[in-house]
Every structure is written in C-alpha cells, then in structure tokens.
Write a structure and sequence with these properties.
alpha/beta, 10 helices, single chain, D-Maltodextrin-Binding Protein, domain 2, 2 domains, 318 residues, 6-stranded mixed beta sheet
Length: 318
C-alpha cells in the first residue's frame, strides 16, 4: 500500500490546510469577456488515446458551452509539448495540466499562464505520487533490481513520468541516463502508452502517476492506472509497483494570464462548483474519484520551475 510519508514536493503548509470549496454554479449567460474570447480553446494533454480523451471531456465541454453560451474548441495534443507551445502562442485559454507542464508553459509563455485549482484527494491531501511498475511475472521486486533493465519514461514534460523520478534517483546516487543504471531508457509517447509497452515486453519497467490512495487492485482512486483499469485496458494483477516518489502537488487547471480578470473569476467559480453540482462530469473530467478542487497560486509550483531549469543545466553539461 502506498502511504503519505515524507515531505511533499511543491506543497505549502497553507495548501495543506485548505479544504475543497463548494459553491453555486455561475448563472447561465454570455459574458462581457466573450468579446475578447468568442471561442474558449481548451488544451488536452497527451498520454491517452484521442478517442478516450474526447469522450472523457465531452460532458465538461457541453456544460461549459451551456453555462457561458460560448463555443468550446478542444486542442487534442499528441504530447505535453503541444499544449505548452499553444499557450506560448496564445492559442489556448484553458488546460488541465501536470505540475511540470504548467511550469514549462509558464517559462515558454513568459509567465502568461496562471493556476486556478488542483484536485483534493479522498484522504484530504492535494498530492499524487509517481510510481515505478514492472510486469508481475518479471521477477523484479525493487528499484535496486531494476539495475541493468530497460525503463520507459512517459513524456519529457511530465512530472511523474520523467522529472520527479530522475530527480529522486539522482538524490539516491543513481544516474538515470540510458546505459548508466538502466540498460536503456526511452519515451513511450505518454503514460498509457508506457504501460502498454511494459505489458508488451518492449520495456521492463515504466513510471506513471497515481493518487496513491484507495484500493491498489483497481488502480487507486485516480490516475493513469485507474483510468486504464476503468477502460478495461489493464488488470492490476499484471503489474507490480516497486517504487514510489514523495508526494507531488497535483497539477493545476490553468488559464492564460492575459485573458480578462472576469474570465479568471468565472473559470474559478465554475470549477469550484462543478464537483458538487455535476459530480459525474467532475469525476470523468478529473480522471477518477477526487474529493473536489481547491485554489492554488503560482508560487506553489516554483519548485517545478526550478527542477526544469536544473534539468536543462544537466543537458547542457552532457
């Protein structure tokens, strides 16, 4: 069982004290900000096949359109970088992002993104964990036993699927570069794709994200494993979890900072009310059984900006 021990990465003490905030949904009607935003453009991170992503957000999209009487256009990106670059080019207004993707978007857009809310988990925390998994029949039972074996990263802009494991491995004296501890490493193209690659014997291990709370037999309460179990793409009996990270601050629902302040206010109100007003839509959009959403600030994610800059410095030294 994964437990919540150790310091939380990117987790302020004030945030720990916050609880999910319930409020009424914004009243239906077209807003003044629609003059500047005639179409709400929402980015969808990679890591899940396109058909499933579109189906998962369909109810959310329709509710947004009905509430604000403005059409919604979805950008289905092939990977995290697609959403990051779209923010930098002012081609998006909203996206639900990983913490590292938010940090990348902030850097690429010169600060033109702002976080609104993150998920509060069922245990009251606002965090998730990165886990390393292997096939249950692999005979590998620990990170130490992964030495000399192959590892699939999820995405270079993923906190749980790349940046956090690499940082924690280095802190343990493990060089995560291909051939130095692991026999080889590579990017699988997303979290879902990495699990499939391990199950298909293309890699011996992979890393992904999970809430770390709830029943491990069904992939916990939220995360990539839970989504794959729910879609009948995965039986958790086929995987073994052999490593977990410290808790990581959940990724934020993000808006472009240069949009009107009234737009920010409406997006915040909509998302804080959604879990109570439309729980089915909330759980489907939020990838599992979260408790609700809580507000966050940019400063809560500074640690991820620092980590990206350190990773860039590592690449320059190689």
């Amino acid at each position: 069982m994964i437990t919540r021990r150790g310091a939380t990465l990117g987790f302020g003490s004030l945030l720990l004290a916050r609880g999910a905030i319930a409020q009424e949904m914004p009243k239906q009607g077209r807003r003044d900000w629609a003059k500047d935003i005639p179409v709400m453009r929402i980015g969808l991170l990679g890591g899940e096949n396109d058909a499933d992503r579109l189906a998962r957000v369909d109810g959310y999209k329709k509710l947004m359109e009905a509430t604000f009487e403005v059409p919604v256009r979805l950008l289905v990106a092939a990977d995290y970088a697609g959403v990051i670059q779209a923010f930098a080019a002012k081609q998006l207004e909203n996206a639900y992002m990983s913490p590292a993707a938010y940090a990348s978007a902030w850097l690429e857009s010169n600060g033109d993104v702002v976080p609104l809310v993150v998920t509060q988990e069922q245990d009251g925390s606002n965090s998730y964990v990165s886990v390393m998994y292997v096939r249950a029949d692999s005979g590998i039972t620990s990170l130490a036993e992964m030495k000399g074996h192959s590892l699939a990263w999820a995405d270079p802009n993923s906190a749980s699927g790349y940046l956090i494991p690499r940082a924690e491995f280095r802190a343990q004296g493990i060089d995560p570069e291909s051939g130095k501890y692991f026999s080889r490493t590579g990017f699988a193209g997303g979290h879902e794709q990495a699990v499939v690659a391990v199950l298909n014997h293309q890699y011996e291990g992979g890393v992904t994200w999970t809430s770390g709370v709830g029943d491990p037999a069904v992939g916990y309460t939220r995360g990539n494993l839970r989504m794959m179990v729910d879609k009948k793409m995965l039986d958790m009996k086929d995987l073994r979890i052999i490593w977990k990270s410290r808790p990581i601050l959940n990724g934020p629902l993000t808006v472009r900072k240069s949009t009107p302040a009234s737009y920010h206010a409406d997006m915040l109100a909509f998302h804080l009310a959604l879990p109570t007003a439309h729980p089915d839509i909330y759980h489907t959009f939020d990838m599992g059984s979260g408790k609700g959403w809580v507000p966050v600030k940019h400063e809560d994610f500074q640690v991820f900006i620092d980590m990206l800059q350190q990773e860039a410095a590592q690449r320059r030294r190689r």
